[in-house]
């Protein structure tokens, strides 16, 4: 959600969302778009940092953001913390404040990269 908000703010010339699952599959289209990116920002939801590790294993150097470590956002386990009989949607467990926090970290990383290249 935060990444979509970043695209609204910065536009598609400065920000985008890629297919992480296609990276280890070495999809030519995705790999070429990733290589063409000025920077890659990974956003992970737990200390395992899987998206960061997948990008690194593909030979890229990401700017990592971990919402649990960097922002102290509590991770909900779908199996344990969210009752199976709950009628709440998954997005009801994420607050607008948390989305804003992630959005600001991503925007800050993009703008910092822009400044360092000028």
List keywords for this structure.
4 helices; 118 residues; two-stranded parallel sheet; mainly alpha
Structure description:
This protein has about 120 residues and is mainly alpha-helical. It has one domain. Helix content is about 40%, strand content about 5%. The chain has a two-stranded parallel sheet. The longest helix has 21 residues. The model has no long low-confidence stretch (mean pLDDT about 85).
Short description:
This protein is mainly α and about 120 residues long. About 40% of the residues lie in helices and about 5% in strands.
Overall body shape: globular
| Rg over CA atoms | 16 Å
The H-and-E topology, N to C, reads as: HHEHEH
The largest sheet is:
2 strands, parallel
Portion in beta strands = 5-15%
- Indicate how many domains the architecture comprises: 1
Structural class assignment? mainly alpha
Average pLDDT figure: 83
Total strand segments: 2
Distance between the termini: 29 Å
What is the tally of helical segments? 4
Q: Helical percent range?
A: 25-40%
The side-by-side strand order for the widest beta sheet comes to 1-2
Unreliable runs: none
């Amino acid at each position: 959600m935060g990444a979509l908000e970043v695209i609204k703010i910065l536009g598609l010339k400065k920000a985008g969302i890629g297919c992480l699952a296609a990276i280890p599959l070495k999809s030519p289209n995705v790999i070429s778009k990733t290589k063409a990116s000025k920077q890659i920002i990974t956003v992970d939801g737990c200390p395992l940092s899987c998206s960061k590790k997948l990008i690194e294993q593909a030979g890229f150097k990401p700017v990592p953001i971990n919402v649990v470590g960097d922002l102290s956002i509590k991770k909900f386990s779908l199996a344990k913390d969210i009752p199976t009989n709950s009628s709440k949607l998954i997005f009801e467990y994420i607050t607008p404040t948390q989305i804003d926090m992630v959005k600001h970290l991503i925007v800050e990383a993009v703008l910092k990269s822009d400044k360092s290249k000028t």
